C-alpha cells in the first residue's frame, strides 16, 4: 500500500481555461536540473520518460514537449542573469 502512495504521477493537469495545463513541480525541477547540467532540451523528454519507466515500471500518460523544456531553459537563463546582477 505504501508503494502506491509513493508514486509520483507524471500527468499534466489540465485547466478548463484556454486548454493549457501545468506539470507537477517535481517534473519542472528535474528539467531544470538537467538543463543546468548541460543536457540538450531535445533529449530531456525521452530522458524523463526513461526515468519514470525505470522507477515506476510503466510509461507515463504524458511527457513534456520540447517547447516546454525550451521555456524552462529561458526561465533558468533569467534566474542566472538575475543572480549575476545581484
Topology (elements, then pairings):
Blueprint: H1 2-6, E1 13-14, E2 21-22, H2 25-36, H3 44-56, H4 66-85
Helix pairs in contact: 2-4
Provide the descriptors you would attach to this structure in a database record.
4 helices, 58% helix, 86 residues, two-stranded antiparallel ribbon, mainly alpha
Report on the structure:
By secondary structure, the chain is mostly helical. It has a domain at 29-86. The protein is built from four helices and two strands, in the order H-E-E-H-H-H. The protein has a two-stranded antiparallel ribbon with strand order 1-2. Strand 1 (13-14) and strand 2 form a beta hairpin. Helix 2 (25-36) packs across helix 4. The radius of gyration is 15 Å and the shape is globular. The N and C termini lie far apart (48 Å). The model has no long low-confidence stretch (mean pLDDT 84).
Q: What share of residues is helical?
A: 55-70%
- Helix count, DSSP H or I runs of 4 or more residues: 4
How large is the share of residues in beta strands? under 5%
Radius of gyration: 15 Å
Q: Estimate the mean pLDDT confidence.
A: 84
In N-to-C order, the SSE pattern is: HEEHHH
Which parts are unreliable, with pLDDT below 50 for 5 consecutive residues or more?
Answer: none
Largest sheet: 2 strands, antiparallel
Query: What is the β-strand count?
Result: 2
Give the spatial strand order of the biggest sheet.
1-2
What's a quick, concise take on this entry?
With 86 residues, the chain is mainly alpha-helical. The chain contains four helices and two strands.
